[in-house]
Amino acid sequence: MSADGQTACRIDIQDFEGPLDLLLFLIRRDELDVTTIHVAEVAGQYLDYIREAEDLNLDIAGEYLVMAATLTRMKSRLLLPVERALMDDTEDPMETLMRHLVLYKAFKEVASELRENESIWRDVYTPPGERDRYEEDVTVTDPGQTSLLELLLALENMAEKNAPAPRHRIHKPLLSLTECVSVLDRLLSLESAKDFSDAVGKDADQAVVVSFFVAILELVKRGWITTEQSYPFADIVMKRKTERWEMNA
Amino acid sequence: MLDQLARQIEALLVATEEPVTVGRICELTGCGTESAEQAVLRIEAELASGGHSIVVARLAGGYRIVTDPELGFIVGQLFEGKRHSRLSRASLETLAVIAYRQPATRAQVEAVRGVNSDSAMRTLLERDLVKIEGRQETPGRPLLYGTTSRFLEYFGLNKLEHLPRTNEMENLLKLSAEDIERLASELSGEESDQII
Amino acid sequence: MLDQLARQIEALLVATEEPVTVGRICELTGCGTESAEQAVLRIEAELASGGHSIVVARLAGGYRIVTDPELGFIVGQLFEGKRHSRLSRASLETLAVIAYRQPATRAQVEAVRGVNSDSAMRTLLERDLVKIEGRQETPGRPLLYGTTSRFLEYFGLNKLEHLPRTNEMENLLKLSAEDIERLASELSGEESDQII
């Protein structure tokens, strides 16, 4: 904004929330009543103001200019009684503008009342809530309803426990799918279920857990095993469904 | 000395993440509405007589325990830098129009304010004070906005009817309904290509 | 009846999100270590004599006020079944990228957001707002994500085409599709050995 100090004593367009706000300011400055004021009296001042601002190369938002055009039209209508008579059946734009000003003024006042509420309630603080203390204890899903997501979460949980510092990404080579499958092939029987943590070993590192997990997803997809989990983060229980696993199929 | 029911309710009002309605209190503690309301009064009395720093607030249709605003200058330090700034005047005005007029389209807000309210609207959405409630079944299908329960909490209101000057504003809006619609339809005609 | 210092400390311990050390209490209230410790004892005594449901917990080298564990059976119910009611900023951003770009890989989301979106993604999956739609047929075969019908419901939308296109979301998507692809392929190159 290039006011160069010339506008020091002037009103700054940035202080206003739009043309209605500026109009209200002009009305109030002259201690006029919005409900009775003939808008034409203020229109002149508004136009002067916009003209000056334009002369100063101030950046004027389009809405101000639209309002200026409207006010100019109103003023010219006042000067042309003929046109005024012709337009008699339509509504007087001046009245509309006045109603608009009253409405806007009311909202402006309400907004400042809300501002008071805001300043009181900004000083009010709420306890953070105790979800963290309780949620895990109470979220239980029905047994046998293992979704892909719960599987993922279980993995996450196990992987986290085993990871020394979770800051870095894994770059360890993973076991191949075939390797994992052949281990599981030996481990799983048609008769009894097996826990995932047993399959990978108690202290398996993250890469191993990931490899086995992917293998399990693949086996589930092929319908060769089923998985169950009694609640989120619980161990995944695997059961063999088919006798023969042909990886190349 | 608080009785068992009051203790239970107090714990709920401390631990909750959002105001708890009387109905929910009854459900969780197994008491009746009247007993719940009286227990809340006993909690308030006991907190006051012990000179405690917390109070029961009636917000967004429910209760929750909050710190005394008088101590805001101390507690606020805990959240320095994390605290939201106060709302701008543009945001407050926009919020006021939405609050009384809801559900309202952006064009309706702009019709009342006489000025573009895009960025104010964005701030309000971001701060969860306003939410999208659907679309208006008119040409262009503009989005409809309403206030959230966070809005009520933010201004310490229990319900929408507790907004300042509800009746007066309602009447005013009724009187200017046509004006607003006319201006709004002019505005949304100009902008319909902005909305997908 | 609590004195002013105890009141201030109590308010801090109620509102804090993590335990507050004695040192921090002194810093915020301007009192000495000994006074702080004694004030905590006064708070405890006053809470106990009023039969209140909250206690001072000594945790992780600090203090905070929490509900009495004895009332866990009541308080726990508040969080039963009901997941977080509000999405965090990070989740929303992530969701936005997925919603507008779907199907999208995590690397694409991160390319847009410029930060790791792991936990946001997990939240969204957990809350059934986003689902896995398959794998992209590129090296590393990254997972592809899309939004669920729960997502539409959550945002009160009838169909995906009704998604709002506010400037906020446009800002997120300022990058051209090519930019995103390029950034994403760089990212997924780094991560190709991380499967999930």
Describe the protein.
The complex is a heterotrimer, with one copy of chain A (about 250 residues) and two copies of chain B (about 200 residues). With about 250 residues, chain A is mainly alpha-helical. Among the domains of chain A are: about 110 residues, no CATH class; about 60 residues, Arc Repressor Mutant, subunit A (Orthogonal Bundle). Chain A has ten helices and three strands, in the order ααααααααβααββ. Chain A has a three-stranded antiparallel β-sheet with strand order 1-3-2. In chain A, a hairpin with an 8-residue loop joins strand 2 and strand 3. The two termini of chain A are about 75 Å apart. With about 200 residues, chain B is an alpha+beta fold. Chain B has two domains: about 70 residues, Winged helix-like DNA-binding domain superfamily/Winged helix DNA-binding domain (Arc Repressor Mutant, subunit A, Orthogonal Bundle); about 100 residues, Winged helix-like DNA-binding domain superfamily/Winged helix DNA-binding domain (Arc Repressor Mutant, subunit A, Orthogonal Bundle), CATH 1.10.10. Chain B is elongated. The N and C termini of chain B lie far apart (about 60 Å). Chains B and C meet through helix 1, helix 3, helix 7 and strand 4 of B and helix 1, helix 3 and helix 4 of C.
Fraction of helical residues of chain B: 40-55%
Which oligomeric form is depicted? heterotrimer
What order do the SSEs of chain A take from the amino end to the carboxyl end, as H and E? HHHHHHHHEHHEE
Largest interface: B-C, 50 and 45 residues
Overall tally of domains of chain B:
2
Task: Quote the average pLDDT of chain B.
Answer: 90
In short:
The complex is a heterotrimer, with 1 copy of chain A (249 residues) and 2 copies of chain B (196 residues). Chain A has 249 residues and is mainly alpha-helical. Helices cover 55% and strands 4% of the residues of chain A.
